[in-house]
Specification:
Length: 235
Amino acid sequence: MFRKEYQKHLRPKDFKFSARFLQSFEHLLRFESFSESQKIFELDRIAPPFTYRLRIGRNLSGRIYPTAARTTVGVPTKIFKEFLIHTLNIDPIFLETKGFPTRIPWGEGNLFFGDEDHLRWEVLSPTISELFRQIENSPLEKLEDQSLFDYDPEFGYVTSCPTNAGSGMKVSFKLSMKLWRNRKNTSFKIPDFLEFYPENSSEFAVFYLKNFTFSQKNFFLNLVYYLALQVELAF
């Protein structure tokens, strides 16, 4: 049952997005010819009205998940604190609270606890360059040790929600629903692999990719630029 559920909902490992999938997108074709650093510079220059977020979910190996446990995080507090201090090098001062904290700063982002997974790292940024700067300046290699976390050779990192399994990473960007409704090309198609939901009573539109990996960064930049073309008033 477990394996069937994950096989059914696991997101594809790879996605590709380029101008060759589209028609009449000369701007995107030009953008694709840029280097990665040039693409980031160009996205910062046009400043699309997006807010970016990267989330990484992990569960400790052999431990009950929070959704099925009576404790806040699903792991005995002493064991979990030792893991955070000795493995993730969390400053013990952040754990000297009466109850277990729900958020701790780590790297350039924050670790969250007590949700559907044991821990979740998130970083939020107003620009694409700042997003990847924060990612690159955070010790994310500590979250890639397969011996420490619940990992399956077929599915990758296992999470409470099967749709989050794989890399355990979800990258998203949101914009005002008002801007989205007023985009220049109302008939354009959202790529099949890109998921979408309204947030805060439909105040924002959120686009996201699950099972994201950093090897997909170049295609992700193409995708952001493609959506920016729909709402960017500078063109």
